[in-house]
Design a protein that fits this description.
Length: 209
């Protein structure tokens, strides 16, 4: 399809984000289930409810435009969600996996923020004020969701992941220290034996009468 006007580009981008949000509606329950941190799981469930409401707002916009929402295929969202799926299948520590899932979710949020920011600008340029307001509402929700994920990562999940790494390092240090202590004891024993041999060698040999 050849895009000749800003309105056509606007509709095409709306269809793209509409497909993206519907992909996300299917993915978020799996992400909520995979998360081991209760707050993260709850954040994914909350965002699922927001996303479903956002899809309804997009449907309203399509009705205003008298256009059908179907037809778009968001390859960008597909790629981001495939990456998240691979992470969920990784054999990783629970806290590390949660931290990785936050990173994947924030990539999704940043894509949505960029998309809705652009769409709102198009709506304003086309003087579609009511649609611009709806898109601004969605944009604000996406920014809030991203902020919540950042706070969650900083306050508990990433710190927990770091703590486990430190514990592993401490265990390794303890093992090394134990090995060093054993080596030192062996060296001291060897030195003691050498000193005894030297002392015996230095003792005068008794004369025969």
């Amino acid at each position: 399809m050849k895009l000749e006007t800003l309105r056509e580009l606007y509709i095409e981008e709306l269809r793209d984000i509409y497909d993206a949000e519907n992909q996300l509606v299917k993915a978020l329950p799996k992400m909520a289930k995979a998360a081991t941190n209760e707050e993260l799981s709850a954040a994914f469930e909350e965002h699922l409810e927001q996303t479903e409401a956002q899809v309804e707002r997009l449907n309203e916009i399509f009705e205003m435009l008298e256009e059908k929402p179907k037809g778009g295929k968001c390859e960008a969202m597909k790629g981001l969600l495939e990456e998240a799926k691979k992470l969920m299948e990784e054999d990783a520590d629970a806290d590390v996996l949660d931290a990785a899932m936050i990173a994947a979710a924030q990539k999704v949020e940043h894509y949505e923020i960029a998309s809705y920011g652009t769409l709102r600008t198009y709506a304003e340029q086309l003087e579609l004020d009511e649609q611009a307001d709806l898109l601004q509402e969605i944009l604000d929700e996406e920014k809030d969701a991203d902020d919540n994920l950042t706070e969650l990562a900083m306050t508990c999940i990433n710190l927990a992941a770091e703590g486990e790494e430190e514990e592993e390092e401490e265990d390794e240090d303890e093992e090394v220290s134990a090995e060093d202590a054993e080596e030192s004891e062996e060296e001291e024993d060897e030195e003691g034996e050498e000193d005894e041999e030297k002392e015996k060698a230095q003792e005068p040999t008794p004369r025969k009468r």
